Amino acid sequence: MEGIVIKTTGSQVLVRTSDGTRVDCRLKGQFKIHGKKATNPVAVGDRVSFLQNTVSDPGLINEIHPRHNYIIRKATRMSKVYHVIAANLDQAFLIVTAAFPRTPQGFIDRFLTTSEAYHIPAGLVFNKTDLYGETKAAAYYHYLLGVYTGVGYPCIPVSALTGDSIPLLKEHLDGKVTLFSGPSGVGKSALINAIFPGISLKTGELSAYHQKGKHTTTFAEMIELPGDTFIIDTPGIREFGLTDFRKEEVAERFPEFRELQHRCRFHNCLHLQEPACAVKEALQEGKIHPSRYRSYLAIVNDEDLEENDWE
Ligand SMILES: Nc1nc2c(ncn2[C@@H]2O[C@H](COP(=O)(O)OP(=O)(O)OP(=O)(O)O)[C@@H](O)[C@H]2O)c(=O)[nH]1
Ligand SMILES: [Mg+2]
Ligand SMILES: [Zn+2]
Fold first, then answer.
1. What residues contact 54, with CB distance under 8 A and at least 6 apart?
2. What pLDDT, on the 0 to 100 scale, is given for residue 238?
3. Which domains, and CATH codes, for the chain?
4. Within 10 A of 199 (CB to CB), how many other CB atoms are there?
5. Candidate of 85, 97, 158, 161 to mutate for ligand 1, largest count of ligand atoms within 8 Å of Cβ
6. Candidates 203, 237, 240: which one to mutate for ligand 1, based on the most atoms within 8 Å of Cβ?
7. What is the pTM assigned to this prediction?
8. Mean pLDDT of 49-61
9. pLDDT digits 0-9 by tens, 265-293
């Protein structure tokens, strides 16, 4: 039999077959050796084959089909192992907020460059617009909106609380498999509840002191909506460590750099100090946002991305 992994907690794997049946499965031991550096051999979204004696028995997964794509992350910049967040995605949405807990721009750039590296179309969902008001949050939101619509990423402002623009978000999701990623407490689960009120995912309070989420969602889970639409809810991530890359590859992951770099004098230009660099010229002309260039530098130099000084 065949199906798609909709939830996995290590050795236990919940598989959905094409007729919608859910089957509890186990992994055959051999897969644990497979993919040495990955902490999880099978991820949500994986297509698998399994054997099952009777419907009351757990299935035994004997094959993980080749992935059409996948997205992985390291726990931190320094860690050696990585985690496969999900596989076989149509798109990945980063859920952020300009308020409580305010998402740093460096986090956004690390996520977007990772999606670019794996050729997964990405977008930004700005949640909690009900809290922006005329405050600093509103200014930060408008700033981010300017930067990322400028690059060409879809940016969708919504409120899970009031339901504002939820129908618009739904349109972006229709008929697709979408990953919802982002820091804890931004409202990933609350948004899925707002999109599909039948679902009642657990949502969590923010900690009073840090205004951060408390990691309410603990395992990734694929949620099925009517109309062949699937959303993958994931646990909040603290840091989005990039996997190994070569310096020359980084500009490929910034769409606004990628489209200019063939005009640099040197084909292997890193857009640092080289003469006749089209990327640096665009930066000077204000066509590339300085914050994006700073993120680029931090990634090339393998430094932490601190909060950009947007104000
Ligand atoms: N004011 C406001 N609060 C919201 C909104 N969306 C979510 N929240 C609140 O934010 C808190 C966190 O929401 P969750 O949905 O649990 O966040 P999450 O991103 O799933 O967090 P993790 O599962 O920990 O990664 C909850 O207290 C929600 O009620 C919104 O649009 N406006
Ligand atoms: Mg959650
Ligand atoms: Zn250049």
1. none
2. 79
3. 2-64 (2.40.50.140), 70-233 (3.40.50.300), 247-300 (1.10.40.50)
4. 15
5. 161
6. 203
7. 0.92
8. 91
9. 999 999 999 999 999 999 999 999 999 99
